Amino acid sequence: MNGNDTHSDRLTALNTVVNGIAKSWHILKQTDMTWNIKNARQHLEKVRPLIQELAAGWQAAEVDLVAQSDKISQELQSDDYIVSLERELQAVGVQFSGSFPAYMLPPFKLNISLGNYEARLSLGRKNERTSDLNPQRLAKWVGMRYKKVLARKFNATSFMKDLIEAYRIANQLKFHDKKMVWGRAVPIIDLYDLLTVKATTRQDYPKQFFVFDLGLFKETATLEMDRYRFELGFARNPTRAMTVVDSSGRESHISSLTIYLDEGDDA
Prior knowledge:
The chain has helices spanning about 5-30, 30-35, 35-75, 80-90, 135-150, 155-175, 190-195, 200-205, 205-220, and strands at about 95-100, 100-105, 110-115, 120-125, 125-130, 185, 225, 230-235, 240-245, 250-260. By secondary structure, it is an alpha+beta fold. The chain has a 5-stranded antiparallel beta sheet with strand order 1-2-3-4-5, covered by helices on one side.
C-alpha cells in the first residue's frame, strides 16, 4: 500500500467515525423532547467507542490534511495551475484577456487572490466570491455567471440611439461649437460618462456592461443607422481606451467614436 492509499484510508475511516458520531448525536440531542430513554442509552453506548476512535485517529488525519493543504497551495503557485485554469475557462466558453491573477471577461472582471485563497468575480459594484479554486470547479462557477449575462439581448438600434445623443453633447462640449459639427472623433470614455451622469444609472449600467455592449456593437452591428454612420477609433495604448474582447478572443482598444451624418440632413 502506498502513501496515498494510506492517506485515503485514514480519511475514509475518520469520515465513517464522524458520520457515526453525528448520527448518534442527532438522536441524543432530541431526548429532552422525545423522552426516548431506550434510544438515548443505545446511542450513548455507540458513541463512546467512536469518540475514542476519533481521538486516536485524529492526530494522523490532521497531519495528512495539513500535508494535503500544503500540496494544493504549492500547486496554486505553479505555472501549471495557470495553464489549467485558462484551459478550463476556454472549455466552458469564457472569452477573456489579461493574465493571472487578473482577467477581463467583459462585462466581468475576475481576480484571484492567492493570499487569502479567494476568487472574486466583479460586475460594477457587484462582487461574488468563491474559495473553490480547483480549475474545473472555478471555471464552471465563472462560466455559469458569464453565460447568464451573455444571454441578455443586445438591442443595437437602441444602443446606437444612445450613442448619438451622447455624441451630440460630447462633441459640442469638446469643440465648443454652437452648431453641431458631425464627423469629429470624441473619446469613448466621455460618451460612457455622459450616458451614466446619474449615479443610479452608473450602478445599473456599469462600465463593464458598456464595454460588453460596445464589443457586440463592433462585431454584430452594421455601424450604420438611417443616415448616421459610426466609426470606431482604435489606440495602441489602452490607457485612454476601453479594452474589448470579441467572440474569437481577439482584443482591441477602442479609444474614440466618430459619427457622420449624410449631407443635406438636419440633425
